[in-house]
Design goal:
Blueprint: H1 11-14, E1 23-24, E2 34-39, H2 43-55, E3 61-64, E4 86-90, E5 103-107, H3 126-141, H4 149-156, H5 167-176, H6 200-206, H7 233-242, E6 258-261, H8 276-282, E7 291-294, E8 297-303, E9 316-321, E10 327-330, E11 332-338, H9 345-351, E12 354-355, H10 357-362, E13 369-370, E14 385-390, H11 406-416, E15 432-437, H12 444-458, H13 461-466, H14 476-493, E16 499-505, E17 510-512, E18 514-515, E19 523-525, E20 536-538, H15 546-559, H16 565-569, E21 572-576, H17 586-596, E22 632-634, H18 649-671
Parallel strand pairs: 1-7, 2-3, 2-11, 3-7, 11-22, 12-13
Antiparallel strand pairs: 4-5, 6-15, 8-9, 9-10, 14-17, 14-21, 15-16, 16-18, 19-20
Domain Glucose-methanol-choline oxidoreductase N-terminal: 341-355
Signal peptide: 1-17
GO molecular function, one term: flavin adenine dinucleotide binding
Length: 672
């Protein structure tokens, strides 16, 4: 495909009578123009669309989405034929980890990754979000728009935590589930109850704890504690207590160090997946005549008639039909908001001529804005798993292996269809995890040596640049931004209240070591032969060698499990790295990490970072693209400068909620 000047098909000539159906599937169904155009109908994009159409009933909003509306089964629902669309990516081989490739999945469906993710609905610690402001320096500290913990925490609370009477979700589930779910009649329609404690007997049985003050909300995005746990879940909990970890009552209120109960993004009655298409589209569309959703279309790029810095009006949005590959332009009168996700937002910008000049020129794309941070700063969680055998396994029941028993399996399937749902299919991927700070993992001198290494790199242009991708090693902005990030991460990792390691579990004989704050930085680039094809991911994991020091600290900590009284009682024997690997042998442990690391736990982010332009940033605190005038923003997980110590779904909703408030406040001021 040749990317040149603006396409010229006029929507005014094609739009005659709008159909009754809410979902649009062809250009002739669209309005001549829109006030807001959102490229990407995922977690953040639909959140923004919902809030804008609610706040401005006289302004029109169009969401352009590549996927279709599909039922989103939970990650551990009984097997079915329902498989929502997914993007599958394989990165370039990673030489630092035995040429492994990262495998990444993202939602290719209305609702985005909230429809296909693991449903683990946690938040980072307060220090994670404070670090965003610190990485931005004085410019961000002085900004009226705050993205620190105090600035973002209220937006986490706008997402409902656990309500037992939300007919918005009842209606959507009953319509989209096959067979239909019939339980709405017993509930009060469209209440906005925002928190209901788990049933007393369930809370007592599993020892659930929570703090209602951490939650709130007024949207039908639900998360809840499941009504089931495998029988050996408490064994691991006891083992971690013996390793010295604390048990905070609540880990969603900003303090997140210890053993945590984590909500799951599912309805508290049906245990069906809760996601943004249900909460931010299906539940509201009947009352939003100003809300259009165009499916099976790709937002290709934005097109400026003039240099964007000389023009305050928003660009055109070039859209491609997946049915016939035809191209047309959509006009936005107020703003264009790109919300295509951390792996696709950079490709939209790059195809638009917004990105690193050297990358654009090599792809034959005219440079509109030279922003080296576009498609840079790629981060994700990664790590190996420590595993063991319990040679005296006890009499735990039930366990996951019981799903091989036909009687148990049939009862599990039947239980999932009851109201309320019960049994193992309600568990999703589990809802317990440990979060451990670096100072709690080893001798102070050992931990101090890691922090010292990071600070030494942050203090040297030459050292910092040597760990960046080759095309950034001579970029003052990218070097300055990376040094600021390293300095921020050194402070974060030295904090005994800020987690460096996550290990989630529900059962089993392994502990995965999530590296929560990687130091290495990857890239997302256009396919040189086909700019509409899937982007090229280069994870570059381990390109900063201090990441291996962090991995080793995590592995050494988890290896202590086999020596705890609980595990000794059950005859624990380490399988990996294995009893033959000496804990003091750095090289042997590094070889284990290289061989066993999973390069992506499906949390890619940070590829259009919210940082000052002189630090390699792509957007400012108002999420406007640097230098693009007043009409172009980015709202999704690409804007995070640093990946938080959490799975990303809850943060994606919070970013969408805060972005919507920023946009609404600005346009209300203009109107006034």
């Amino acid at each position: 495909m040749r990317l040149s000047g603006p396409t010229v098909i006029s929507l005014a000539a094609l739009a005659s009578a709008l159909p009754d159906a809410a979902v649009k599937r062809q250009v002739s169904q669209l309005r001549p123009s829109y006030d807001f155009v959102i490229v990407g109908g995922g977690t953040s994009g639909l959140t923004v669309a919902d809030r804008l159409t609610q706040a401005f009933p006289n302004k029109t909003v169009l969401v352009v989405e590549y996927g279709e509306i599909q039922y989103g089964p939970g990650v551990s629902d009984p097997p079915s034929d329902s498989t929502p669309g997914r993007w599958s990516f394989s990165s370039l081989p990673n030489p630092e980890v035995n040429n492994k490739t990262a495998f990444v999945v993202a939602g290719q469906v209305v609702g985005g990754s909230s429809v296909v993710n693991g449903q683990f609905f946690d938040r980072g610690s307060r220090f994670d979000y404070d670090s965003w402001t610190e990485a931005g320096g004085r410019e961000f500290e002085s900004s009226d728009i705050k993205w620190n913990w105090k600035g973002i925490f209220p937006y986490f609370k706008k997402v409902r935590w656990s309500s037992l009477s939300p007919c918005e979700a009842c209606f959507c589930l009953s319509q989209q589930h096959n067979p239909p779910i019939h339980f709405c009649s017993s509930l009060t329609p469209r209440q906005s109850v925002t928190f209901t404690e788990p049933p007393a007997e369930v809370a007592k049985k599993y020892g659930y704890t929570w703090d209602v003050s951490a939650f709130g909300g007024a949207t039908p995005i639900h998360s809840s504690f499941p009504r089931f746990q495998w029988a050996d879940q408490p064994v691991l909990w006891a083992m971690y207590k013996e390793m010295g970890l604390q048990e905070p009552k609540e880990c969603a209120g900003g303090d997140k160090e210890g053993i945590c109960w984590v909500p799951t993004s599912q309805h508290p009655v049906t245990a069906r997946r809760s996601h943004s298409e249900l909460g931010h589209y299906a539940a509201v569309i009947d009352t939003r005549p100003n809300y259009d959703l165009l499916v099976k279309h790709q937002g290709v790029r934005v097109v400026y008639a003039k240099k964007p810095q000389h023009k305050s009006s928003p660009p055109l949005v070039e859209v491609r039909s997946l049915a016939d590959n035809s191209l047309f332009n959509v006009t936005a009168k107020a703003e264009v908001i790109i919300s295509a996700g951390a792996l696709h937002t950079p490709t939209v910008l790059l195809r638009s001529g917004i990105g690193p000049a050297s990358v654009l020129k090599s792809a034959g794309i005219p440079v509109v804005l030279d922003l080296p941070g576009v498609g840079s700063n790629l981060q994700d969680h990664s790590g190996p798993a420590v595993s063991w055998n319990l040679t005296k396994p006890g009499t735990f029941s039930p366990l996951p292996k019981d799903m091989n028993n036909a009687t148990f399996l049939n009862d599990a399937v039947a239980g999932f269809s009851e109201t309320p749902a019960r049994g193992p299919y309600t568990l999703a991927m589990g809802n317990s995890a440990i979060y451990v700070s670096l100072p709690h993992m080893g001798a102070p001198t050992y931990i101090s040596s890691i922090i010292t290494k990071i600070r030494a790199i942050a203090a040297s242009d030459a050292k910092a640049s040597s760990y960046l991708p080759p095309d950034h090693r001579t970029s003052p902005a990218m070097i300055a931004g990376y040094k600021a990030q390293l300095s921020t991460l050194a402070t974060l990792l030295a904090n005994p209240q800020a987690p460096s390691l996550e290990s989630p579990w529900q059962s089993g004989s392994a502990a995965t070591a999530f590296l929560l704050h990687p130091l290495s930085r990857g890239t997302v680039r256009l396919n040189g032969t086909d700019p509409l094809a899937q982007p090229i991911l280069d994870y570059r994991a381990g390109s900063n060698p201090v990441d291996f020091d962090l991995h080793l600290a995590h592995v050494r900590f988890l290896r202590r499990a086999v020596d705890t009284p609980t595990f000794q009682k059950y005859g624990a024997v380490e399988v990996l790295p294995g009893e033959g690997v000496d804990d003091a042998d750095d090289e042997a442990l590094r070889a284990f990490v290289r061989a066993q690391t999973t390069l992506s736990f499906m949390h890619p982010c940070c590829t259009a970072a919210m940082l000052p332009e002189e630090r390699g940033g792509v957007v400012g605190t108002d999420l406007r693209v640097h230098g693009a005038g007043g009409g172009l923003r980015v709202v999704d997980m690409s804007v995070m400068p640093l990946v938080p110590a959490s799975h990303l779904s809850a943060t994606a909703y919070a970013v969408g909620e805060k972005a919507a408030d920023i946009i609404i406040e600005e346009w209300r001021k203009r109107r006034d």
